Amino acid sequence: MARKKWVIIMGFWICLALVNVSPAYAEDTQQSIKHEAVFKLNDKIAWINGKKTVLQAPPTMLNNHTLVPLRSIGDAFGARLKRESKSDKMTISYEGATIEFAIGQAKALVNGQAVVLEQPAVVLKGTTMVSLKFIATHLELDWHYNRTTKEIRLASKIIKASEAMEEEAGKEVLDIKKRLDKLTVDYLSANYINLPALEKIRFYPFGTVSIAAVKDNQAYILSKDPSKGYMIQKYDPNSAEKYTVIAVIDQRFNFEYSVKGKYKASFVYGEVVPKRLVYDEATDRLYMLVESSSRIPDKLRFAVFSITPEVSMITYQLDNSSYFKIEDAFFASMDGSTYYFGEPHAKIIYSATKGQASELFNSSPTSDKTQLVSIVTEGNLYVYDKKDGTIFKWTGNNLVKHVKVAIQADSIVYATASFGSFYLLDEHHVVHRVSPDGKMETYAELAKVSFNPGIVGVPETANWPLFGDEKLKLDRYTVQMSVDSNGNLLLFDDGILKRVNVYANETVK
């Protein structure tokens, strides 16, 4: 009996000891963040230590460097900031580190030692902006930039050893996506089938068709309904409805404009001839390029409208003196306020500010009567010349030859750009991915695909049979192509929207 009592007492003290030790063990093995700041490129919404904050100026790219607001860094980590108004000298101190610098100056002092800045501090919209890499390195902060989501994360120490990022702190972190061994094709719309469930997901191959893949694997489709006219629909694979009409051609497209400063004229929606959709990844805005059906002298030649977040006129052009083909032009903006429009047939580059007429900016060195495709990535504008196979880079004043793509240019059937890369479809039905620096890889062999039965999101079609001879038509005159944020190809092919699955639909982190 005494022995049993002794065992019970010893068990009690052992349990008590374990209870006292456990918190200390947990504290050593599960480190938590003291301070954290989460930004997103070109987004004014930030999260400072878990609290939503609206920034006066969002993080941005300048000269290929990511700039972040200094005040927000100070607020997030409790750093001390001091500014001398007379000299524009700034000082930031944090946990024993002191950095001194001046706006626009290429030299700084870090703990009294001179350091040369690759990108000096600047003031944007009244906010001091500093290089992310410079400030994080010298304040010894962990930082990560996800190139896919554009998210910037700074922390005073690593979150947990068990949740370490895929790469070391201070390097870009990319989603690791599982590439499929065999490419498959999903039908995302129907064509001339008498089934009520398919009525809302039918597109008609009449007039202009244009598609633009956007973030979250969504896409916008411009098409013309025989009875309702042109409309823009949003495809969302995660929505029960799948397709939603977000815009039709109506009075929202009406506006007044000045004709050479002499008199006012009106552009009405009945004159709209839609030509192409353009998606700006940096600002998450969708634009539509349109022609005017009027051929009256001094009347509007073309216009550009933003479609999201709302329909509004961005710019317009009056000159009708030369031939043009607006769907072959490039349209881009690097800051969301100044826009550039490159017209390849007249070989002219126009610039514009929102709501104003575009103005002649410079001549274009691109090929005559070509198609131009543009991307803006890491603060730089690149333009691919389909006829010549050359990638041009924007200098701020003009396009200059950057690199020649190692592919026979006249074999390219279709060219597009999405999420930082160019995608070229050749006459052998092979898609090539090309980086802005001209590095090329075979991305998808579209002659070697298999088809999935039915139409995605329509259960009634799940058991529809396959006949074994299905293939992509890829007609050079009607095909449209874009690439979604997961890396899969979206094709408007033979009147049907199709998705070529290059990657699995889930990302492995």
From TrEMBL:
Q: Where is the Copper amine oxidase-like N-terminal domain?
A: 48-153
Q: Which Gene3D superfamilies match?
A: Copper amine oxidase-like, N-terminal domain (3.30.457.10)
**Highest taxon of the source?**
Bacteria
- Tell me the protein's name: Copper amine oxidase N-terminal domain-containing protein
Q: Does the keyword Signal apply?
A: yes
Q: Give the UniProt keywords, A-Z.
A: Signal
Q: What range does the record give for the signal peptide? A: 1-26
Query: Which residue spans adopt a coiled-coil conformation according to this UniProt entry?
Result: none
What the entry lists under InterPro entries is as follows: Cu_amine_oxidase-like_N, Mao_N_sf
Q: Keyword Signal: yes or no?
A: yes
